[in-house]
Known about the structure:
Blueprint: H1 2-7, E1 18-22, H2 24-37, E2 44-48, H3 50-77, H4 80-88, H5 92-117, H6 123-143, H7 147-152, H8 155-175, H9 177-202, H10 205-221, H11 225-239, H12 243-253, E3 255-257, E4 265-267, H13 268-275, H14 278-285, H15 289-313, H16 329-345, H17 369-394, H18 420-447, H19 478-486, E5 491-492, E6 506-511, H20 512-516, H21 527-546, E7 548-554, H22 566-574, H23 595-600, H24 602-622, E8 629-633, E9 644-648, E10 654-656, H25 667-677, E11 682-686, H26 690-696, E12 707-715, E13 718-723, H27 724-733, H28 748-758, H29 772-787, H30 804-820, H31 830-836, H32 844-858, H33 873-890, E14 908-911, E15 914-917, H34 922-934, H35 951-954, H36 1017-1036
Parallel strand pairs: 1-2, 6-7, 6-11, 7-8, 11-12
Antiparallel strand pairs: 3-4, 5-13, 8-9, 9-10, 12-13, 14-15
Helix pairs in contact: 3-4, 3-5, 3-9, 3-10, 4-5, 5-9, 5-16, 8-9, 9-10, 10-11, 10-17, 11-17, 14-15, 18-36, 21-24, 25-26, 28-33, 29-30, 30-32
Amino acid sequence: xxxxxxxxxxxxxxxxxxxxxxxxxxxxxxxxxxxxxxxxxxxxxxxxxxxxxxxxxxxxxxxxxxxxxxxxxxxxxxxxxxxxxxxxxxxxxxxxxxxxxxxxxxxxxxxxxxxxxxxxxxxxxxxxxxxxxxxxxxxxxxxxxxxxxxxxxxxxxxxxxxxxxxxxxxxxxxxxxxxxxxxxxxxxxxxxxxxxxxxxxxxxxxxxxxxxxxxxxxxxxxxxxxxxxxxxxxxxxxxxxxxxxxxxxxxxxxxxxxxxxxxxxxxxxxxxxxxxxxxxxxxxxxxxxxxxxxxxxxxxxxxxxxxxxxxxxxxxxxxxxxxxxxxxxxxxxxxxxxxxxxxxxxxxxxxxxxxxxxxxxxxxxxxxxxxxxxxxxxxxxxxxxxxxxxxxxxxxxxxxxxxxxxxxxxxxxxxxxxxxxxxxxxxxxxxxxxxxxxxxxxxxxxxxxxxxxxxxxxxxxxxxxxxxxxxxxxxxxxxxxxxxxxxxxxxxxxxxxxxxxxxxxxxxxxxxxxxxxxxxxxxxxxxxxxxxxxxxxxxxxxxxxxxxxxxxxxxxxxxxxxxxxxxxxxxxxxxxxxxxxxxxxxxxxxxxxxxxxxxxxxxxxxxxxxxxxxxxxxxxxxxxxxxxxxxxxxxxxxxxxxxxxxxxxxxxxxxxxxxxxxxxxxxxxxxxxxxxxxxxxxxxxxxxxxxxxxxxxxxxxxxxxxxxxxxxxxxxxxxxxxxxxxxxxxxxxxxxxxxxxxxxxxxxxxxxxxxxxxxxxxxxxxxxxxxxxxxxxxxxxxxxxxxxxxxxxxxxxxxxxxxxxxxxxxxxxxxxxxxxxxxxxxxxxxxxxxxxxxxxxxxxxxxxxxxxxxxxxxxxxxxxxxxxxxxxxxxxxxxxxxxxxxxxxxxxxxxxxxxxxxxxxxxxxxxxxxxxxxxxxxxxxxxxxxxxxxxxxxxxxxxxxxxxxxxxxxxxxxxxxxxxxxxxxxxxxxxxxxxxxxxxxxxxxxxxxxxxxxxxxxxxxxxxxxxxxxxxxxxxxxxxxxxxxxxxxxxxx
Length: 1037
């Protein structure tokens, strides 16, 4: 675009426009660019490519109809990789051919059933239909692109549809769910798909527009997040195109004909894919003989197509020249094969045993009631969502955001399949557990000792960290979405109007790093030009949009207090960091070509922040468009560190503002420090980070007279504001939360903040399988037993450095896991389970540990791996300490001087200037390693195990049933070695003789016991040897 603007002058003339066609990502990027750069890109007209619409329709269509019957047709001709590509909709050409051929076969079968089952059909009617078919075919050949007008003028055609064909299948669809489902496939979904294709091939823009509109509900129903938003915006944008652009589109300029004739046109994005596809790109970047051969083979064709493409772009009129292409015999053979398969092996359009449910047309399997309901009503649901989206987002007639629907997650015949990568990770995680459990069972059976403990076999608490010790991360944006569902009056799509009776001044606080995330255009050659653009884009917009009297630009200051736990999260986001290329940033310094790579180097990012802090003040001094006060803080180093500077609109002098001096490191806490000290009555904070408004929840009582809004989203026709005052009032008046007790109602905002931190944020890890929604739901349900007035310890006591808050945290986590696996327990609620254990525990601490152990034992048999198992008590305590560090840090947002607690005392370890997480205590880690070593594969000695060459003797253990040694003298009748972890195994002892021996558990939890009967020792050794060999082979695989 920059090249076109600079070298060709497109956009400099007011009548010049550039229509850019692309896929959804390109279209979305162009819309964002127009929103960000405003009038500078008025000449740019983004256009959503039709070919990509067809391509992205294929996966939803295959998901709906593949396992309901199309799979059996696909298996006739396709196997292996081709079958998989078509089934998933990943290969456009093969999937497109299959869909069109199978659609024609279904259509033929429906007509066949109509002709054979309609009572009024006789030979004369059959001849009438055949004559009508021939007439339509002649009209297509004779009139080309005008076939729609000519065919619909045929009285016999309309009569046939209205009097015979449509009523018959309407009656059949009403009586049978399966017939209705496949009728919709023929006459609605695939018909619209085919009409869009036909509109492209015949240059029918009106048909194209109508088809796209009819296909849009499918994107909403099938949870296609990108296209469900962009298609309505695209339809609205096209209607606003200049008149001469619309005229070109209506005359066929949205397609290009390769041969120069109509009937074989392709969409513009399809033409691009034909010319610059993957094979061509690979050939251009490779120098081997094969690549050069392919390049030379395709170049003449591409040159010819490019010449024709140029001619088509320079359109001067529409060609009505008819064009027909021969019908491929190969295609006809395929359709006939599909048609014969439907006739011979399917029950398509026949009566079924259960007419209320959708049945598989080949196997006869009847779907569940939920699947039938979803498949019959998915299009209507999509229409509902589409209409709500158009009214509330595109047109914004209601002035408020619609109630957000959860993902439709339409149930189909398809069984959810795990990806190969997911299966590999799960197998890797479970391999050690399976091996250890099998050997534990073998040892128990050989020694006739019960399994008294449910051991942990993975050293790290996998519920909150990955296998390499990285915190589990999930979406924290869901927290705002869940609050919006519960308290919709607190969220607005635009700010409420200001009363003109009372003078109210507005302050706009912008978290500066979100400004920096907006990359410069290529027309912004230097950092000085980029700073001027940011000033116009953000500061001037804030003045005009919010009528802001004061504008604050606040930056974060990384490592202000030394190393930070957020360095772990920053490292995860940045990935691999490039080399330092900038040692200084000035107004005449050229902008980097890769903006994201530039920002990932933290020293370069800080140089940019330093430059912008001074440059924005300088611009405000020189321009007439400036707020009454522009205050910038957090972006200065050296002697001006922690200082804030202001430019007044009247004096144009840069001056220090001591009231805003602070040593805050994070921008999300700095904004609340400034919000507390501003003199304006209305405050608008722009920060999409969900941490920001959670920081302010318990601080709103400090500014009760100010109206505070937090802007989470600033997109075109898609703004989102939180009214913090209303949200606080709604939280305190929530009936479900009143059960925390009258004395804690004022602490409810703090409790919601604690809940957000505990469930995962930038400083703390998430719990795998437990979302923000899950934590909020459980807290609303069990808040009285978690932190009620009668409970031992309250969550908000963490600010008082009280250990009682830890007990409330234990109850919270126990409730979370109890509710997820509630069917595994005999109690109705976690509070009831807790009370049932109160009589047997000597102290409150022991009671809470017993409560957690009971829940860990209760859901042990319901989990697939240790990532679903609740962490140990010590691991939870360390997680709580990290949460307390964050809570106490955020509580200082109102202060100008922040004191950071010692990380080494709060579940982290600082070593050599780097922060690492302490996931569990050394005692627990040792216990897990001992469990693994205890069940480790034994020795394979062949010399009697009499020397330290024997692995077991070297480790001061007696040989066990896990060993496959020969002539062992270190096992049956020998005494335990010093420091042995296991008793010597004597397989010949009977259960009666061994009844006096007991197993003492070495874990901190009590679990049920499982006893086994003894078998012959040789048989046991053979069994365990086979198990060890199986494990070895499994590892080799």
